[in-house]
Amino acid sequence: MFRPSLVILIALIIGSYYYDDKSNVQLQNEFSQILLNWFRQGTYFNYKNVHKIFYISEELDSDEQLPSIVLLHGFPTSSYDYQRLWTLIRQENKFKSIIAFDYLGYGFSDKPIDYEYSIFDMADMVDKLLLHLNITSVYVIAHDVGDTVAQELLRRDNLSGQNHFKIEKLILMNGGLFTDIYQPIITQEILRTRYLKNVVSKYFFKFTIFKYSFRKVFGSLTHLSDENLLDFFNCIKYNSGNLVIPMTIGYMHERLQYGEAWIDALNETMIPTLFIYGPADPINPRNKFPQKILTQLPNVRLNVLSEMVGHYPQYEDTFTVWQLIKKFLN
């Protein structure tokens, strides 16, 4: 007979033995030089005058008429997902600036335990940050849960322009738009399990487990070294971020609640939209996902990448992704 209390007790005994609670300074000492440079490039914005949001903003041109590029990252990682793409974007002079940031609960931003994490709040963060930076015209590039944040921004835009900025064009990548075919990996399912989520996130968020699980969402084109994987891991672990994963993953429930409204937002918008899809993605299966885009989102342009590209196109095939984006923006 299954006894949740017994499972939790055993997990606590085993997990506490291996419990690893490194400080931020200790984690920084493990950063690669690339991640360290990314971290040092950033600054903080006070959200709701309480919480600090990490962001990076780089001006590329002084022409106020040019749109800026805003990068929205996915779960459970951070804006660092875009580091490779950032280096290509900044070589262009067709944009006013580039902005990337970590939502609350992610990356180098604050990760409060007693907080109501939601897609709606993440959309508010985008709006408030761009207002703070006096950015009024943007191209949005989004990935994974960032796609859902972008859909909420579209929904607000459709309702008489409720945002403080204008989205000129939208690029989405490998987000779980369709809940009926979405296939979360096993760690996501565990982190939603009532009896195990807090125990697992606290005592079993180990690098050895993480790298095995995380590698599975990448295609064969990408070889992830332990240094690469440790950077991803430490971005999540920073500010004890593993403890809030059971809360930030609540976006999956919100997709079930509001998914239809967010699909409607994509169909109702007049904003040109491109979806770049890495087909070696176990979460959004290749045998169903592209067809769903074509049939349910006829106004969205679809580009399918190599069969060797998985869930993180902007990291796995950065050059091709940027060429597709540039063509779309031009």
Which SSEs are present, and which pair or pack?
Blueprint: H1 4-17, H2 24-28, H3 33-41, E1 43-47, E2 51-59, E3 68-72, H4 83-89, E4 97-101, H5 119-132, E5 137-143, H6 145-158, E6 166-173, H7 186-190, H8 197-203, H9 207-215, H10 226-237, H11 245-248, H12 251-268, E7 273-277, H13 289-296, E8 300-304, H14 313-316, H15 318-329
Parallel strand pairs: 3-4, 3-5, 5-6, 6-7, 7-8
Antiparallel strand pairs: 1-2, 2-4
Helix pairs in contact: 1-8, 4-15, 5-6, 6-12, 9-10
Describe the protein:
There is one protein chain. The chain is of the alpha/beta class. Helices cover 43% and strands 15% of the residues. It is built from 15 helices and eight strands. The protein has an eight-stranded mixed β-sheet, sandwiched between helices. Helix 1 runs parallel beside helix 8 and helix 6 crosses helix 12. The N and C termini lie far apart (62 Å).
Q: What brief labels describe this structure?
A:
single chain, 330 residues, alpha/beta, eight-stranded mixed beta sheet, 15 helices, 43% helix
Q: Poorly predicted ranges (pLDDT <50, ≥5 residues)? A: 4-13
Helix content: 40-55%
- Please provide the ordered H/E string of secondary-structure elements: HHHEEEHEHEHEHHHHHHEHEHH
- Would you report the number of β strands? 8
Radius of gyration: 19 Å
Q: Calculate the mean pLDDT score and round it.
A: 91
The rough form would be described as: globular
Number of helices: 15
